[in-house]
Design brief:
Layout: H1 6-19, H2 24-43, E1 49-54, H3 58-72, E2 76-82, H4 90-99, E3 108-110, E4 124-128, H5 140-151, E5 155-159, E6 182-186, E7 204-208, H6 214-219, E8 224-227, H7 229-235, E9 250-254, H8 261-273, E10 278-283, H9 288-294, E11 299-302, E12 320-323, H10 331-343, E13 348-350, H11 352-360, E14 373-374, H12 378-385, H13 391-405, E15 408-411, E16 417-420, E17 423-427, H14 439-452, H15 457-479, H16 486-491, H17 493-508
Parallel strand pairs: 1-2, 1-4, 2-3, 4-5, 5-6, 6-7, 8-17, 9-10, 9-12, 10-11, 12-13, 13-14, 14-15
Antiparallel strand pairs: 15-16, 16-17
The protein binds ligand NPW, adenosine-5'-diphosphate (ADP) and potassium ion.
Subunit structure: Homotetramer.
GO biological process, one term: metabolite repair
Pfam family, one: YjeF_N
């Protein structure tokens, strides 16, 4: 699914109105009715107090339409008009009039703190103050109203955007922004819904297809994509009946040091669980028995050193090499990485200490084969590309880094971002149970495996990140967030892949 900007959506609005020969009021009715349906499906007529805070633009207009439908269906609704301006949009005014047909309770006007209502913990708040039309920070008494709503601990549903959130920039630290429990947004996700700086304002997210013109949306230039199950299905290549292990790649995992052999074991397990035909590890001698016992399916080659890596098996024939987990950053290990980079011809994956060595020895970046994949968490990323001011600045830095070195960067986080030049893929699977030691090592194994199975590196990264998150979701469903171990993510990759496959079958029925 494309991630769009406020400008693109407003343009889509206009084109849809022209092409479908409808009025903007009809489009508002369509969009807000979808919101009403979602609320009605969940509340099922429950007699809870619903307080709708409407702005005076079209986001407020949506709020009035939702109010009308809720009142018609017998809900207990109070409507407030947050009078941050004396202007009114046409569609707001039209729906203000229509509200008269269904209630004698006129909306209450809020013009200052004196008009603030009481908000109770059991209220259901609908935030329809500002949507994609916000063009400056919320200030004065309106900001205080936002803060009052946030403090109330009532359930907050935001319409289109949590009020105070811009679609293309990060609000200041002390800015007034609605902290929604749930956001129902129109037609396409906005990038701020997924950034670490802003995702907490959004709560759970659902995108409503309001029927904007398909041709316009299809042609829109947007290099930003949200990756969910549908996208992952289209990337997955089923295994052929007539095949053998040689068809699924030989992955070589290079890493580990004394006390950190578990990391490579997790990566290799994940690679095999993702379907690698063969998997070998190159590790210091101290890890030999642990790996041979822990993963009998893997082959092991040991370094001359007992406790760390110092070299690279130059004659080794592998389809893909993954370097770095648990490796440490000793001088000898830097030489091992250098040897590897001087030897390999195909794209590699670099993680963890491999990234730390690259950060301290930037000249090595030039040795990386084109389309190699780097998988930093935010700390490792900072060491690679420098400090950033905010998340938009971070994405800019990573884009130019990716273009400069022709690399694919996987920024790990609650929503992992895969950046390949101007293209960006935002992952939408995963859960906080995955914030546990070694889950990144598992991700490296999954992506490496797909790279070795002849997936394009960017596809391997996007599909790998999605399946890793999905496997984490399956593990959490069975175990609860707290009990998910990295190994449980690896164990469930098969089920995550099966999930895609059964969906494919379902679609073809
Ligand atoms: N796109 C779609 O597909 C569809 C969109 N629809 C809906 O329309 C919404 C967009 O509506 P919108 O353009 O009227 O903007 P909205 O967010 O209501 O606010 C604008 C008002 O706020 C003002 N203003 C701005 N910042 C301010 C501030 N800090 N403090 C004070 N005032 C401020 C600004 O006035 P200004 O003073 O800048 O002239 C203006 O009056 C969208 O989010 C969705 O809900 C659906 O109905 C149909 C399909
Ligand atoms: N809250 C979260 N929601 C979704 N995924 C998460 C969350 N926290 C961590 N993850 C995922 O877990 C992995 C953690 O990787 P990393 O920080 O490298 O851990 P480690 O170094 O312990 O292996 C990443 O793939 C990240 O996306
Ligand atoms: K809103």
């Amino acid at each position: 699914m494309k991630i769009l900007t406020a400008e693109q959506l407003s343009e889509g609005d206009k084109i849809t109105i022209e092409k479908q020969q409808i009025t903007s009021e009809e489009l508002m009715e369509r969009a807000a009715t979808l919101v009403f349906n979602e609320i009605n499906n969940r509340l099922q007529g429950a007699p809870i107090p619903i307080k709708i805070f409407c702005g005076i633009g079209n986001n407020g207009g949506d709020g009035l339409v939702i109010a009308r439908h809720l009142i018609q269906h017998g809900y207990h609704v109070t409507v407030y008009v947050v009078n941050y301006s004396d202007k009114r949009s046409d569609d707001f005014l039209a729906n203000y009039e229509k509200l008269k047909d269904v209630t004698n309770d006129w909306p209450q006007l809020i013009k200052s703190e004196d008009n603030f209502p009481e908000i109770n913990i059991g209220d259901f708040i609908i935030d329809a103050m500002f949507g994609i039309g916000l063009n400056r920070p919320i200030e004065g008494w309106v900001a205080n109203l936002v803060k009052l709503i946030n403090k109330s601990q009532a359930f907050i549903l935001a319409i289109d955007m949590p009020s105070g959130l811009f679609s293309d920039k990060i609000p200041a630290e002390d800015a007034a922004v609605i902290e929604a429990n749930f956001t129902l947004s129109f037609q396409a996700p906005k990038l701020v819904f997924f950034l670490p700086d802003t995702m907490d304002y959004v709560g759970d997210l659902q995108i409503l297809d309001i029927g904007l013109d398909k041709e316009f949306l299809g042609k829109l230039q947007s290099g930003n994509h949200l990756i969910g199950e549908e996208e992952a299905v289209s990337l997955y290549k089923p295994r052929k009946a007539n095949s053998h292990k040689g068809d699924y790649g030989h992955a070589l995992i290079v890493g580990g040091s004394y006390g950190k052999i578990g990391s490579v074991l997790l990566t290799a397990t994940a690679a095999l669980k993702t379907g690698s035909g063969l998997c070998s590890l190159y590790i210091p001698k101290c890890g030999y028995h642990a790996v041979q016992t822990g993963l009998p399916e893997a082959m092991v080659v040991t370094d001359v050193e007992d406790d760390l890596l110092s070299g690279y098996p130059e004659d080794f024939k592998a389809d893909v090499v993954c370097f770095g987990m648990g490796a440490g950053t000793a001088n000898k290990t830097r030489e091992a990485l250098k040897n590897m980079l001087n030897t390999v011809k195909t794209p590699v994956l670099i993680d963890a200490d491999g990234l730390n060595i690259l950060s301290e020895n930037k000249e090595l970046l030039d040795l990386l084969p084109e389309n190699s994949v780097l998988t930093p968490h935010p700390g490792e990323l900072k060491r690679l590309v420098g400090e950033w001011k905010d998340d938009f600045h971070k994405l800019e830095l990573v884009r130019s880094f990716s273009k400069k070195y022709k690399l694919i960067i996987v920024i790990k986080g609650a929503h992992t971002f895969v950046i390949d030049g101007n293209d960006m893929y935002v992952n939408n699977s995963g859960n906080p149970g995955m914030a546990t030691a070694g889950s990144g090592d598992v991700l490296s194994g999954v992506i490496t495996s797909f790279m070795g199975q002849s997936y394009e590196p960017v596809t391997a990264a996007v599909l790998g990140v999605f399946l890793h998150g999905r496997a984490g979701d399956i593990a959490a469903e069975n175990l609860g967030y707290e009990s998910v171990l990295a190994g449980d993510i690896a164990k469930n990759i098969g089920k995550a892949i099966q999930g895609l496959f059964s969906r494919k079958l379902k679609n073809s029925e």
